[in-house]
């Protein structure tokens, strides 16, 4: 019972801290105070400390000599490298998945894209990002290659660990992304060639990288 309880508290602490990092309530460089979190979560310091160790393994937390546990600082080089790899992986997976995509899935993709548009109108960036991830997960879930899917998941996790709030999210890019999603849905519904779908899906992701570079240099 004690072990189950301990693991439950550890996982709860893990989920709380992780969600705050990913939605940018804890921004890069934010100091994570164990005792403060333990009081907030009404638990001892032990499960919080273990959760932080788990987040360190995920790359979301870094330990420094002076500050202790902090949210991992933004790594620009790692972000660009990871997004470039994700573009290749998602491009291949989306093209393979296009062989098996269903009308129901296409309908769901359209709904997710509409929700992204609504989130953009409300300037709700975390919700926009959440729907965007759901959209892409649905585009490649039928690829039939479990290793490829795991590789994409791991690459997304690495991206989470090196990105920062609003890394490449600008209203003009967000609007363009929705338009590109509409094109991708059309290509899949029209049974375009796998090569064409792969090239478009890869370019779509690389356009996000281009938006980041333009924002950086502006």
UniProtKB/TrEMBL annotation:
MF-aspect GO terms: DNA binding; DNA-binding transcription factor activity
UniProt entry tagged with the keyword Transcription: yes
Organism superkingdom: Bacteria
Keywords: DNA-binding, Transcription, Transcription regulation
Coiled-coil zones: none
PROSITE patterns reported in the protein's UniProt record: HTH_GNTR
Domain HTH gntR-type: 7-74
Protein name, UniProt field: GntR family transcriptional regulator
UniProt organism field: Fictibacillus aquaticus
